[in-house]
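User: Quick sanity check before I run a bigger batch. Here is a single chain. Can you write out its predicted 3D structure?
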Amino acid sequence: MQMLYDSDSFVVLHMQPELETPSAITLADGKTPAPPMPRHGFEIVDKRSGKEVYLDGSWAEMFQKVILEWQRESPTQEEVEDTLELYSGLAQNPVLVH
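Assistant: Done. Predicted structure follows.
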């Protein structure tokens, strides 16, 4: 997990699979560990509403393109927040502290 952005309004985390960790799930033979899923995703937390959204699959790929564009263009904080605001409409899960 890597924090990509943190402000008063939003946090963006990049979740990456830990490929070194052996799987607790086994294949049909009951002995062979299942290969890990090499997927990544992004968690966007809207601090104002206390909700989060997890982007994976094609959503994560699209958001990765946004991040690459930010790296090339160096947007202002307002521009970043405006973009994250678009994704915050997808946030339905309340943030829970364990």
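The chain has a mean pLDDT of 84.

User: Great, the batch can go ahead then.
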